[in-house]
TrEMBL record:
InterPro entries: eIF2B_alpha/beta/delta (IPR051501), elF-2B_alpha_N (IPR042528), IF-2B-related (IPR000649), IF_2B-like_C (IPR042529), NagB/RpiA_transferase-like (IPR037171). It comes from the Eukaryota. PANTHER family: TRANSLATION INITIATION FACTOR EIF-2B SUBUNIT ALPHA. Component of the translation initiation factor 2B (eIF2B) complex which is a heterodecamer of two sets of five different subunits: alpha, beta, gamma, delta and epsilon. Subunits alpha, beta and delta comprise a regulatory subcomplex and subunits epsilon and gamma comprise a catalytic subcomplex. Within the complex, the hexameric regulatory complex resides at the center, with the two heterodimeric catalytic subcomplexes bound on opposite sides. SUPFAM superfamilies: NagB/RpiA/CoA transferase-like. This is Translation initiation factor eIF2B subunit alpha. It is found in: Cytoplasm, Cytosol. GO terms for cellular component: cytosol; eukaryotic translation initiation factor 2B complex. It comes from Pseudomassariella vexata. Keywords: Cytoplasm, Initiation factor, Protein biosynthesis. GO terms for molecular function: guanyl-nucleotide exchange factor activity; translation initiation factor activity. The lineage of its organism: Eukaryota, Fungi, Dikarya, Ascomycota, Pezizomycotina. Belongs to the eIF-2B alpha/beta/delta subunits family. GO terms for biological process: cytoplasmic translational initiation; negative regulation of TORC1 signaling; positive regulation of cellular response to amino acid starvation; positive regulation of cellular response to heat; positive regulation of translational initiation.
Length: 308
C-alpha cells in the first residue's frame, strides 16, 4: 500500500498543471489526505505518502540550473520534470526493496536452523526463497542455506501463505504448516522467528497482522530471536499507545448477549482492512531493511531524522 500511494501521487503530479512549489506541496498534501480517507486502515499508506512528501521537499530545495533554490518560477518547470523522473525511480527502488532485504537478510540464516514465520508476508517469502538459492557474488559463490520452516497459518491469509509455502517447497526447503494456535507448542523447535510488517512505528515497534504480538511474546519468553523484515518506506511517525489506538475500530471484540451465536466475531470479508496488532520494540531483536540491518533504537533514530 505505501508503494501504491507513492505511485498515485506521482501520477497526480504528472497530470496536474501546478506552476509553483507551494501549489505542488499543497496538491500532494490534499491528495494524500484523500488517499488516507479512502481506506479503513491508512497507517501503512500514510507512511508512504509522508515519505514521498519528505522526498519532494528535499528535491525542491536542491539548487536549480542557475545555482538558486528551485522555488524560483524560472526553474520550476525544469525541476518539475526532473522531480517526476526521479519520483518514478524512487517508486521503482521501493518495489525492488524485497530483493535488497533478501541480500541483507540471508546471512542471518544459518545451516540447520528452523525458522518460524506467520502472516503471509511476501518480503519474508522472498528472503527465505533467496536464502535457499546459490548466489554468485562475483568474487565468491554462496551456497544455498539448508534450513527448515515452520509456517503458522492465519486462515484470513491462507492464499498468500500457500503461495510462499509452495515456492519454498519447490526450492527444496522442508516446510511444516501449523495453525496459529500451535505456535507455543512448536516454539521449542524454533531457532528464529521472522515476520513482515504492515508498518514500522516511530519507536521501533511494528504494526502487523493480528496474532503477531502473541508470537513475539512467545519468542521472548522462550529466548528466541524475533526478527522483522520490512522495507524502509514502511517506517513512519505512527506511535500507538496500545492495541486500541489506531484511529479506527477493527470490530474484533463484539460483546453480545441473548440467543445470538456463541462463535467469535468474524471480520466482514468486504472490509478493506485486515485486523492488525501492535508489537512494542521491546519484543523485536532486529530489523532487516532494504538499506541495512538495524536495532529498534536505530529505527527510531532514522524515523526522527526523517521527520526533521
Amino acid at each position: 500500500m505505501p508503494i501504491a500511494a507513492i505511485e498515485a501521487l506521482i501520477e497526480v503530479l504528472g497530470q496536474s498543471q501546478v506552476a509553483t512549489v507551494a501549489e505542488t506541496i499543497d496538491l500532494v498534501e490534499t491528495q494524500s489526505a484523500k488517499l488516507q480517507c479512502a481506506v479503513t486502515n491508512s497507517i501503512a499508506l500514510s507512511h508512504g505518502t509522508h515519505l514521498f512528501r519528505q522526498y519532494l521537499v528535499m528535491s525542491l530545495k536542491q539548487p536549480g540550473p542557475e545555482g538558486k533554490e528551485t522555488s524560483t518560477q524560472k526553474n520550476f518547470d525544469i525541476v518539475r520534470q526532473h522531480l517526476l523522473r526521479n519520483g518514478r525511480l524512487f517508486a521503482q527502488r521501493a518495489k525492488n526493496a524485497r530483493e535488497r532485504i533478501a541480500v541483507n537478510g540471508r546471512r542471518h540464516i544459518h545451516d540447520g536452523e528452523t525458522i518460524l514465520t506467520y502472516g503471509g508476508s511476501r518480503v519474508v517469502g522472498t528472503l527465505l526463497g533467496r536464502a535457499a538459492e546459490k548466489h554468485d557474488f562475483g568474487h565468491f559463490v554462496d551456497d544455498p542455506i539448508r534450513f527448515k520452516v515452520i509456517y503458522a497459518i492465519d486462515p484470513a491469509l491462507e492464499t498468500e501463505s500457500n503461495k510462499v509455502i509452495a515456492a519454498l517447497r519447490a526450492k527444496g526447503v522442508p516446510v511444516a504448516t501449523i495453525p496459529a494456535t500451535a505456535v507455543s507448542y512448536a516454539m521449542s523447535k524454533v531457532d528464529m522467528v521472522i515476520v513482515g510488517a504492515d508498518a514500522v512505528t516511530a519507536n521501533g515497534g511494528i504494526i502487523a497482522r493480528l496474532g503477531t504480538f502473541q508470537i513475539a511474546q512467545l519468542a521472548k519468553e522462550n529466548k528466541k530471536q524475533f526478527v522483522v523484515a520490512a522495507e524502509q518506506h514502511k517506517f513512519g511517525k505512527t506511535f500507538p499507545c496500545g492495541q486500541f489506538d489506531y484511529g479506527f475500530d477493527q470490530g474484533v471484540i463484539d460483546f453480545r448477549a441473548g440467543s445470538t451465536s456463541t462463535s467469535y466475531n468474524k471480520i466482514p470479508k468486504e472490509t478493506l482492512a485486515k485486523p492488525i496488532d501492535y508489537t512494542k520494540p521491546d519484543y523485536v531483536n532486529m530489523f532487516i531493511a532494504d538499506h541495512k540491518v538495524l536495532t529498534p533504537s536505530e529505527v527510531a533514530k532514522e524515523v526522527i531524522d526523517m521527520l526533521l
